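Researcher: Structure prediction, please.
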Amino acid sequence: MTMSMRIKWTIAGALVAIAAALVAWPRLGAPREPQLWGVEVQAVHPHDPSAFTQGLAFYEGAFYEGTGQYGRSSIRRVDLETGEVQQAEPLSAAYFGEGITILDGRLYQLTWLNHVGFVYDVYSFERLGTFGYDGEGWGLTHDGEHLILSDGTETIRFLNPQTFEVEKSIRVHANGRPVVRLNELEYVDGEIWANVWYEDRIARIDPDSGDVVGWIEAGAVYPPAQRGREDVLNGIAYDPDTGRLIITGKNWPNVYEIELVPR
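Model: Predicted structure follows.
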C-alpha cells in the first residue's frame, strides 16, 4: 500500500469514528430512565403506633429506631418480632430527632433545626459527643467510610465520621430533574435508598452520579386511606448479613419485611 493510500484509509477511519460518535452522542447524553419496582411483603411485625419514625438501622443483628417530634424524640433498640422497646434514650424537648445510622459501634442521630447531631455508644446509649452541620437534618446513613446526610433538598453530603467535615456532595436527579424532599436514607448494596417525604416511593440513587436508577413503589403496603396525613412512609433498614429489608412509616402500627419485584 502506498503512502497516499495509507493516509486516505487513516482519514476514512477517523471520519467513520467521528460519525459514529456523533450518532451516539444524543443517546449518551440523555437522562437515564429509572427502573420501576414493586414490593412483596414477606412478613409483618408489630410497631409502636406512637413512634414518629425518622430512621431505622440494623447492627449486629439488632434493630434500632430513631423517632421525632418535640418532647417525644428518642433512640431505641426494638425487638423486631414483637415490637417491644428493649432500651430507649430520650432527647431533650428542645430537639426534634431525625435520621440515625450506626457505624463502628457508634450510633449517630440528627436533629431537624438545631444544626447538631448526637453520638452514642450503640450498646449502652451513653452519649459520647456531638457534631455540627449546616442546614436542616433529615436522613442519615453510611457507606462504611462516610456518614451520608440529607437535608430536605436534592443535595446529599458525605461527611468524615471523625471530623464531620463534608468530603463530597451529590445532587440527586431523575430524568434530568432534581429530586427534593429526600428524607430517611439507607445504604443498600452500593446504592443510597431515600424516602421522598409525602410520597409512597423510595428512590434508588447512584452514590457517585446522583442519578435515580430506580423507584420502589410501596404505597400498597399500608394504604394511604388507612393513615393520617402525617403518617407517611419513612423508614428503611437493611441487614447486610442476612439481606433482610424492612420498611415502615411515621405512626404506622406495623413494620414490613419486603422483597423487590420488577414492574
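Model: Residues 118 and 137 are 12 Å apart (CA to CA).
Researcher: Thanks, that helps.
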